[in-house]
Amino acid sequence: MGLGLFATGCGSESAGTPDSGTPDDAGDGGITSPADGGGPPASFVLGLVLNDGVDERAPRGWPLVLMGIAALTDDVPRVVLDAASLQLSIEDDGGAFQAWAFDVPMPLDGDVVLDDAKAQFEVTWALRGDQTEALPLGRYTARLSLGDQTSPPVTIEVVDLAPTSDPVESATRTRRRAGLEARVALLRADAPAALSAVDTALAEVPDDVALLVWRGKANAAADRVEDALFDFDTADARVRAENDSGEPAVTISENRRPVLERYFQGAR
Amino acid sequence: MNAVRLVLAVWAISVLHVGSAFAQSAEIRAVTAWRLQFTYEITSALRAGGQQFDYRVTASGNGVLEPDGEGRVGFSGAPNITVSIDYMGSAIDGQGCGLVEQLTASGAPNCENPTSLELGSNGFELDLRCHRMPVTHSFSWQGSCGEQFPYPTDGAPIVDWPWLAQDVSFDGGTVKLLFPYPASGVSMGGRDGNQLMGFLAPLFTAIATGTPTPLDYTFQFTLTPAEEEDLTLEIDSASYARWRPSAALPNAAGAPLDVTAKLVSSTGRPPSLRIAEVIWELKNTSREPGIAMNFPSAAMDDELDLRFADDGAHVIEDDAQRAVRSNPDGFTDTVRIEPYDWGGWSQLSVTAVLQGGRRIVGKVRGAAEDGLRVPKRGAGSWVADDWKQTTGVTGLADASDADALPAGDGTPGDGLTLYQEYRGFYVGDRHVTGDPKRKDLFVNNLAKGAATAGIARFGRVSGLKVHGELTPQQMTMARVVNGNRRDGPSVTDQHAIIIEVIAAQSGYAAARGGPGNPKTISSVQLMGDWATLDGDYLSKIVAHELFHTVNVYHHGETDEEVTWRDAMGVLVERRRGGPAAGAAIRVLGENGVDATRLMLARLQRMPGLAEDFWLGVTGGQQSGHHDCVMRYNNAETYVSMASASDRYLITQPMGSGLCMSPDGTGPNAPAHRPQSRFGAASAGRGSCRAQLLVTDAVAAPGR
């Protein structure tokens, strides 16, 4: 690889204006700079997203997933973060902090190094459907923080969905709920639970692309390579039929890639 | 004719008389020497299309005029005169080629003869006899000019400048102004002021329109018996040099500026006269809408951006543009100026009215100019000097948009002028300034954490200054981020990028309207099933789409979708434009292992015993630099050059950098075995770093 052709950005071009938003006073709360804490300031951003990022509503009875992201920016080439200091806070409309009993399928502790080779890490907090049933209805604000850095706020509106007779809306709900259930199950390495959730939903919305991809991932996790490929291929055919943009279905190709490698092991 | 010409097309003069008598009194005849104190100012400015300039001359003088003879009719002397000249002009043509021109001077002028005072029967006549000033003249070409051009005049370098605007006949002529005597007392004074129409020739940036420009001048003086106390009103502010305007939310003032005026006697002793009144005024205060370029969005207000604080000691008048204090203690007074806009500007003046009515105008010690520019800034500029120095852009004009990094396709700038970058933006819950050397790009990330890492990756890889936390309230409905403007210089409407998740869009992401510059991109749309992807890969997808928003293209567009089918135990491929029945193929690993049988077994499970594949081709989407984030990685097969019926099966990772060459690297390199997979990028593609375009001021070129 001609590495000399690339400039992946390590801040040498930064002018560093006084209030340009660089976290130059990030402090030491869980953050250390490249060598010893006395060097250049830490530089990363935090993000948070509810469920699939489409809707602020979190229906009671559905799983609730909050994914947090820490990502390296361009001000330093490397930063070491104390992931155990990552804080998720949730407040209600009155500013009262909430103590939701999150399950953390992907716990992190200790130092996490962000650099060009691995420029981000994710942490997921999840509530099962039976846990969200107990949440008070209302509007909440979630934030992720580490040291002096805080993510943009994410609104969570806990709601009870009214029954619907609209088949399109019904299918959408089925797809999104099953996707969340499969996602949480796979994060817990529970492939059978993921398959069960997706199969049930596919009975109502057959050929749904997202659910087929989730089933392919679940089958792959269960070491059912041919079944996984079948799911991905079916999803791919569905996308090609619907997508006139010419854009490849990357969620399918990227999930299928490792499975294909296993299937054609030795032939590459 | 001298090359330096101050051509005044229309000459008009009106003299404002002080007093009304036309005969000199015995008291005046008794005066043995006169102290002359004067101030002079001329301003002129133009904003016309791509041309603008600001011209300002300030001068002051102080000295004693001694009698020329026994009759005490004629007096002359050489007062200390200090002149400051500031001219900053720029002109830009339709092709983005601009000229920045500067003329400066500070110090004493060349006085040909002593200043004279003649006491006549119908009034007194004052003649400065001091007309010219050595100056420094410079200019530079900026923008898209392909090469350096000579200065666009045929004249010699400017070394001498007629600083008196009304000096129409300066070639040997003089300023002789006739004033009446006062009705009583011995203090004489006067004021001469008017507007002239003329050209500041040969300054190219001033005469480019060919239309005369108004020049406003004022000349004020006093003549008092020489024994009158020499007093000055000194302006001082401890924080002035580093202060810049700011604002606070909601609708509150930012950090204030305290300014003090102090009456000082040249004797070094306390002045013998008390201050009766101190009058502070803010003049030509800006009224830019909103408090920053994007907040509140689409602001329409015309509120004054700098105001005097109501401290209880001053009477605040005229929309807080005038602050008056009567009978201050001692000889000093301090006023507080509060900013309500990150880009506000004004001109502060202060006058002390002494017991008996004598008026003294304040200035900074040693300065020729009356009052104080707020914030501290150069003539013709609204940007604080300190910010320019801190960011290393002291030589740039407010209207320039010269961000050079990253170079991209060679088009400088990010659609934001220097003034706009200085005034700044609200992003999320904080105010930020732009980076005047690095191109800024604003992103409204509705996808929240799904796109956070991708935006960060895009910023790292591109070298752009990416502001990824813009809220919908921090841009207009049309996505404009610099819409709050009235007098501040602008080059274009610069647009933000919206990123959103589309629930019904499965499988793929797209930059709608791209590739193009930000104004062409309606939004970047992420797939609703993004959560099925590995986070690192998702961030590359987001970065890939964001590069489309700054006019970066794929490496090619000619990859094919093919269908492989099990035809009675024979693997056949149908290609676009090929025979309907397809052609028999063989599937191999790149190591030569035949995988045709495995593929046939796989197809047995597929509906119609067939499956679609992306077949990458030379110069297609998968070509070029292997580790470029703009290279597709979805193709699973390609055609053998050794045997047209053989297909190689592959998997490939997605790149993470941004290429600077169209050449194939890694598996695309000529040395790869069994062959280069996809070769170099197609003509005009690849070299992605050299495609990058941020500014909305130009039309994005296609490739």
Outline of this structure?
The complex is a heterodimer of chains A (about 270) and B (about 700). Chain A has about 270 residues and is an alpha+beta fold.
Topology, pairings included?
The complex is a heterodimer of chains A (268) and B (703).
Chain A (H helix, E strand, L loop, with lengths): L30 E2 L11 E7 L6 E3 L4 E9 L6 E4 L4 E6 L18 E4 L5 E8 L1 H4 L5 E9 L2 E2 L3 E6 L7 H21 L3 H14 L4 H13 L3 H18 L7 H14 L5
Parallel strand pairs in A: 3-11
Antiparallel strand pairs in A: 1-5, 2-4, 4-8, 5-7, 6-9, 9-10, 9-11
Chain B lengths: L4 E6 L4 E3 L8 H5 L3 E15 L2 E17 L6 E4 L2 E13 L4 E11 L2 E2 L3 E5 L4 E4 L2 E5 L1 E8 L16 E3 L13 E4 L8 E14 L2 H4 L5 E13 L5 E6 L10 E2 L3 E2 L3 E9 L9 E9 L22 E3 L6 E3 L4 E5 L5 E8 L6 E9 L4 E6 L7 E3 L10 H7 L26 H6 L1 E3 L2 E3 L7 E6 L3 H14 L2 E3 L29 E6 L7 E3 L10 E5 L7 H14 L11 E8 L2 E5 L8 E2 L1 E4 L6 H8 L6 E6 L21 E3 L6 E4 L54
Parallel strand pairs in B: 17-27, 31-32, 31-33, 33-35, 39-42
Antiparallel strand pairs in B: 1-15, 2-15, 3-4, 3-16, 4-5, 4-6, 5-9, 6-7, 7-12, 8-11, 9-10, 10-14, 11-13, 15-16, 17-20, 18-19, 20-25, 21-24, 21-26, 22-25, 23-24, 26-27, 26-28, 29-30, 34-35, 36-37, 36-40, 37-38, 41-42
Helix pairs in contact in B: 5-6
